[in-house]
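pls ignore typos typing on phone
phosphoric acid mono(formamide)ester + seq
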Amino acid sequence: RKDLLDIASLHREEIELLLDQSTSFKEQFTTRSVNKVPALEGKSVLMLFYEDSTRTHSSFEVAAKRLSADVTNFDIAHSSITKGESVRETVETLQAMRTDYIVVRHGRAGLPGLIARQTTAAVINAGDGAHEHPTQALLDAFTIKEKFPDPTGKKVLIVGDILHSRVARSTSTLLQKLGVEVAYLGPGSLVPKHGPATIRRFTDYQAALAWSPDVVYLLRVQMERQDVQFFPSLREYHRLYGITNDRLAEIRQRGLYIMHPGPVNRGVELCDAVMDYERSLITNQVENGIVIRMAVLDWLTPGGEAPRAEPTFGRS
Ligand code: CP
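k done
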């Protein structure tokens, strides 16, 4: 496989392979304190982030360096993109520099796929609009499997703005491939009615908790993607769907795990006390992001397929 663009097209065997390889990397780098392996020696990784990122960007960089690759951070703010250069021109220029991997985040759904068709480099989708965030889904599944080695039949409740969330799309698709039951909870305007019939939909918090989830997965409220007329106030959102101190007490009593992809809006999705909750897996998710991204880089084969059809790029 040359690229990782989505979860939908991944086979179960490929997912298992990536999760197993991540376990192996975690064992080497955590238990045996290995600092570096030569897997990607002589290879170059280009980080092309048109949208801001802390976790994905830094963990890809750490992952690539642990595999001995050279990393170039493309500085969008000081590039010719500010002079109107298109994504196509940018990628053609970077292709001429013979990069082996391009890790791309962009606000436009499908853009990593267009880049992948233009270049022999392995392209990894680091989040494209409200479409997909495949490495987030993989690290989420890995984190859940650390707690539930056989996650079949376990229940994950995804809470919040499902409609605009690439994390909800990728993570729910992947968890279902692993036999996990998934439900959505959020305001009616932000929980899409279309999509897999296998996913339960709730708009009421207590009804969703009565479904008996094992994991409550909170999504970041993405104000940058909201049509404000359909969104309750942040205070109202916290009251209806946030993990308040009272709800945390019930979650603790039920022994549920809490996850969040970050960045967290404290006081909106969750109260401060969640960060100290003994079953919060939020830090585990960040830590596991490194080994998942190592496994993905190690797995892909740059130059594995020739560029296909001429893509149609819009202006960036
Ligand atoms: N979860 C996630 O994608 O975080 P960043 O935006 O910080 O990369």
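Residues 311-316 have pLDDT under 50 and may be disordered. The two ends are 27 Å apart (CA to CA). more later
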